[in-house]
Amino acid sequence: MSNLSAAQLDAVAHLMAEAGTPTAGPLEAVLIAGGRSNLTYAITDGARRWVLRTPPLAGRTASAHDVAREHRVTAALMGTDVPVADAVLIHEAEDVLGVPFTVSAFVDGVAIRTQADLATYDDQGLAVVMDSMLTTLATLHRVDHVAVGLGSFGRPDGYAARQLRRWSGQWETVGDQRLDSLAQEVAAKLAAAVPEQRSTSVVHGDYRIDNALLVAPGSPDAGTVAAVVDWELSTIGDPIADVAMMCAYRHPCFDLVIGAPSAWTSQRLPTVEDLAAGYERVGGVALDDWDFHQALGCYKVAVISAGIDHRRRAGSGTGPGFDTAGQAVEPYLELARSSVLTA
């Protein structure tokens, strides 16, 4: 079920038609499980399906939940080798749903979120998945962002320093006051250790297995990435940050953020060291200043976790992850502190 009314869905259908994608009949919507930030709906006219994305109705924080950003980057990447869902519509006004929203094509792929989902893959199949995940990320980082129209999508330099300022600002809004001293210590150590940026690319910002849809078993390309999704944190920046965030999510306390044994924390997946080496092997950039980027990644996950808990307290989120994400904040801050001290 969804909380979108028939009148709202009629308005969405009208906007889709204006954008060149007419519907064959009234739209119906179902809220798709998963997602602790933006809300994702499957919508259908009975013949075709699309995906509608909106920010949460309450508990939003500045610069987060940016569905317009998702639309712009996927529209630009549609003509590249990076697999994305085709962008259909962006409506930034709040007159229809009370929030901005986007519509994109529905990709009929397999989502792997939990370790139970992962159990359907044998070791050989899982090796295909991981190779495709790493190859896709390296392919993204090789895209000429200026050539695809993303020259003004973000500043090309100073990414780490900007990210540190942004997430520190988020912490001021959503952070647990009991952990302020630790968070400020980590931020100060990171600020003192910001390295020179050596590479620039499109950065996904939240790359891991549950933010990809995979080609279903039984197909010739089974296990490969059919579409990378959840681009709300994307920008132009340092590609090393994408790899570091991917690795930060491998820590077992990420299960608290998901609210279940996460596929991405499974011991069946490559270690952090193997992920980093695998990324470089398939053509990714050299992972210079790796300890710093890992520390910044852990700091960002700590703030993301605090944000999920903030939305729970604001009444805009319930269910798996919302009631446990707050418990992940301190462990991730400690991981960041220990990593930056060795940088």
- Which oligomeric state applies? single chain
What structural class do you assign from the helix and strand content? Answer: alpha+beta
Q: Largest beta sheet: what is the strand line-up?
A: 1-2-3-5-4
At the fourth level of CATH, the homologous superfamily of the largest domain is Aminoglycoside phosphotransferase (APH), C-terminal lobe
Question: How would you concisely characterize the structure shown here?
Answer:
The protein is an alpha+beta fold and 343 residues long. Helix content is 41%, strand content 12%.
How would you describe what is shown here?
This protein is an alpha+beta fold. The protein has two domains: 100 residues, Phosphorylase Kinase, domain 1, CATH 3.30.200; 232 residues, Aminoglycoside phosphotransferase (APH), C-terminal lobe (Aminoglycoside 3'-phosphotransferase, Chain: A, domain 2). The strands form three sheets. A five-stranded antiparallel beta sheet has the order 1-2-3-5-4, with helices on both faces. It has a three-stranded antiparallel beta sheet with strand order 6-8-9, covered by helices on one side. Strand 1 and strand 2 form a beta hairpin. The longest helix has 24 residues. About 2% of the residues have low confidence.
